[in-house]
Write a structure and sequence with these properties.
seven-stranded mixed β-sheet, alpha/beta, eight-stranded mixed β-sheet, 688 residues, N-(1-d-carboxylethyl)-l-norvaline Dehydrogenase, domain 2, 3 domains, Rossmann fold
Length: 688
């Protein structure tokens, strides 16, 4: 078995005679350079990404046997995949493993990585592409790390986002490498760092161009050892106890105790920077065994798998996607908040954009919004100044009617008025080619009526593309399909949406589509509770405790009470009284209090922030905050069940996924249908 993964480089590769062989189907093999450096190369032949499952850990164990036998001067670990170093553990294996197998996998990973850490020769991880979770834990077991400066290189420990903690040594080794405060920040956030950011934090030692990575790694492996800082001041038992205390208090203010993985990470990684390694690894094992069986971990892992499904979903497998023309030239009609946000996102992802509005002032304001978004991307180190300027040049502002025949996609993001939209689409049909995809960003209006409007031709190329506000932060896009929309158009749009870094969910054309349809009864009921005497702060706190990122009344202020009332009216025409506005919203509208944009809604606003005035919270006969949360969340669950029965979405998974990604429905609860199933408040089994 050992010789099957051992291969010396060919004469062409190293300039010397070859003396070895390679089994092509093996996921890990070793190559020896002419400097007597062993390169352990990951290349899973059956998958696009390298991941750690039991078989891969066994192969790595065998590779280490070979390394110890041949006694090279140094070892380099690298990947042959074009975009992935190692993407982490196989989540399907972890999720399906029984307790005994799960413990075996954890122990196996710790033992194999400990073997790397104990190798007597220098070890270097040459990182190109995704180096996440177990991939980074392998790299941390090495003596040094070098990364490519390519944008596909992302380095991090995302385990807490999945409801678990790094347990193959990550919670132990990262605090020792970069100090406890930085290690906790990386582990608790689950953030994937770009290579240069990872270097500034101290996770990697050097960043080089992609084409120089392998040679630089070999040179580093054969060179002097990297000097390391001492973190005794932060990692000693007394300091680490203080840091853990501060970290836990800050965490609980943000999560309200809803995410046990983060708390466990503080407890384990907070002690990982000092003391015996084997004791710290034991704490990792004990914590992850407890967390992996929790409902939170199950739901968060499910959400991750649903995100992966969204990236690969086929609307019609019979369509040959490779034969479809890509979308590269776009136009956005309407330069308001949504239009400018969509245009900026398209350009940031390399598409050329015409930003069109009939009002010159709105065009100018829209371009200023675009500029601010690009400036923000520069501040966050997402783009360099040069990249931002170059991408901004992809946007052509226009207050005049321009030909759209060369556009692959036109997105209408004008005022939410059906009659105006009908006129716009008739005009677009006259100025675009018959093959141009025409999309609307409406949040609630029936798209089928646009297909039937006077002057509208080729309704098979009309589709809904509902982006969520703010476009730069919300990953979900509802792809709304009418009875006329062709499968080819849907597949082209899905490819485009994924290509610009968004997550699509396909839904049927219906008032409010999916997300707003489910969300609106929840918002309306919150307003009715205000009518009954509950304060906005009391209601919002109930839903923050439940796990929502923002309370319903604060959300109404953010959206705008005028916008929300328009959406409710549209849905009320089809679904009746449950979408009727509460008295308090009607009163705010009559007074011109539209929310944040007018300076007052359910809250007064100063410098864009709500002023929360603490008042007596409760009416004479009051529900507890937990009872309010259950009542409001239950409304979303019931509306979600109706959407499932009506076939608005493909299945319950799509509904839960859309509500988590589109509204922030508490991710650890799994979505409104999973929440209801867990509480057995709805008979959903026939649908699930």
């Amino acid at each position: 078995m050992e010789t099957e993964i051992l291969r010396e480089k060919s004469p062409e590769e190293k300039g010397g005679p070859s003396a070895g062989r390679r089994q092509e189907k093996h996921g890990i093999h070793i190559e020896l350079t002419n400097r007597n450096i062993a390169e352990v190369i990951f290349d899973n032949p059956d998958k696009a990404a390298n991941i750690f499952d039991e078989a891969t850990l066994d192969q790595l164990d065998i590779a280490l046997n070979a390394v110890e036998r041949i006694e090279p001067d140094a070892v380099v670990f690298r990947s042959a995949k074009p975009k992935v170093f190692i993407a982490g553990a196989d989540l399907d294996s972890l999720a399906s493993a029984n307790e005994e197998l799960l413990e075996h996998l954890i122990v196996k990973g710790q033992q194999v990585f400990q073997r790397i850490a104990a190798l007597p020769m220098p070890t270097v991880a040459a990182i190109h592409g995704a180096c996440l979770g177990g991939g980074l834990e392998l790299a941390l077991a090495c003596d040094a790390r070098i990364a490519s400066d390519d944008k596909v290189t992302k380095i991090g420990l995302p385990e807490t986002l999945l409801g678990i903690i790094p347990a193959w040594g990550g919670s132990t080794r990262l605090p020792r490498l970069i100090g406890l405060p930085k290690a906790l920040a990386a582990i608790l956030s689950g953030k994937a760092y770009a290579a240069k950011h990872a270097k500034s934090v101290g996770i990697v030692d050097r960043v080089v161009p992609r084409e120089r990575l392998n040679a630089a790694a070999v040179k580093m492996a054969g060179g002097p050892a990297v000097s390391r800082k001492s973190f005794f001041l932060t990692n000693n038992p007394l300091s680490s106890a203080v840091i853990r205390g501060f970290a836990r208090r800050n965490l609980l203010r943000k999560t309200r105790g809803n995410y046990p993985a983060q708390e466990a990470a503080i407890a384990v990684a907070g002690r990982g920077g000092n003391g015996p390694v084997d004791r710290s690894l034991k704490r990792e094992r004990e914590a992850v065994m407890k967390l992996a069986r929790s409902g939170e971990a199950r739901n968060l892992m499910r959400l991750f798998r649903l995100q992966e499904r969204s990236k690969k979903f086929r609307y019609d497998p019979k369509v040959n996607r490779d034969a479809l023309p890509p979308v590269t030239r776009t136009a956005v009609i309407g330069a308001g908040v949504m239009g400018s946000g969509i245009a900026q996102w398209f350009a940031a992802r390399g598409a050329s954009v015409i930003l069109r509005d009939i009002d010159r002032g709105k065009v100018a304001a829209g371009m200023e919004s675009v500029r601010k978004l690009f400036s923000g991307a520069v501040r966050k180190r997402i783009l360099t100044k040069h990249e931002a300027m170059r991408k901004m040049d992809l946007i052509t502002p226009s207050a005049e009617a321009v030909p759209l025949s060369r556009c692959d996609l036109v997105v209408e993001a004008a005022v939410e008025n059906l009659e105006i939209k009908k006129k716009i689409f008739a005009d677009l049909c006259a100025r675009a080619s018959d093959e141009t995809i025409l999309a609307t960003n409406t949040s609630a209006l029936p798209i089928s009526e646009l297909c039937e409007a006077d002057g509208v031709t080729h309704p098979e190329r009309i589709i809904g593309l509902h982006f969520f506000n703010p476009v730069s932060r919300m990953k979900l896009v509802e792809v709304v399909v009418t009875e006329w929309t062709s499968p080819e158009v849907v597949e082209r749009v899905l490819s485009f949406v994924r290509g610009i870094g968004k997550l699509p969910v396909v839904v049927k054309d219906s008032p409010g589509f999916l997300v707003n349809r489910i969300l609106m009864p929840y918002l309306i009921e919150a307003g009715k509770l205000v009518d009954k005497g509950y304060t906005p702060a009391y209601i919002d706190k109930a839903m923050l405790d439940f796990g929502m990122p923002m309370g319903p009344l604060r959300l109404l202020d953010e959206v705008g009470l005028d916008v929300a009332s328009h959406v409710a009216a549209t849905m009320g025409e089809s679904f009746g009284a449950r979408f009727a506005l509460p008295v308090c919203i009607k009163g705010h509208l009559a007074s011109g209090n539209l929310g944040k944009k007018s300076g007052r809604g359910f809250y007064p606003y100063e410098k864009g922030e709500p002023v929360v005035v603490m008042k007596p919270d409760l009416p004479p006969v009051a529900l507890s905050r937990s009872a309010i949360a259950e009542q409001l969340a239950g409304l979303m669950s019931r509306e979600a069940a109706l959407c499932l029965d009506e076939g608005i979405a493909l299945d319950a998974d799509d509904i839960d996924f859309a509500m988590v990604m589109g509204t922030g429905f508490a991710p650890f609860r799994g979505g409104p249908l999973e929440y209801a199933r867990g509480r057995k408040t709805l008979k959903l089994e026939r649908n699930l």
